[in-house]
Amino acid sequence: MAGYDDGSDASDRIRGYIDRLGDRIEGWVCHSGQKTVRCRIDDRDIPVPATLYRADVRDAGWGDGFCGFYIDTPPDLRDGQFHSFSLEVPGYSGFTFPDCPGQILLGIPAFAINLLHPDETEACREFWRTHLTLETGQPVDVTDLGFDFMTKTGLTLVIRAHERVVGFSLLEPKRLSGYRHVAVLRIALLKPYRHRGLGRHLLQATLEQAGVSGYRRIELTVNVNNRAARRLYDRFGFLEEGLLREHYFDGHHYADEWIMARCLAMDNQ
Ligand SMILES: CC(C)(COP(=O)(O)OP(=O)(O)OC[C@H]1O[C@@H](n2cnc3c(N)ncnc32)[C@H](O)[C@@H]1OP(=O)(O)O)[C@@H](O)C(=O)NCCC(=O)NCCS
Question: Model-level pTM?
Answer without folding.
Answer: 0.85
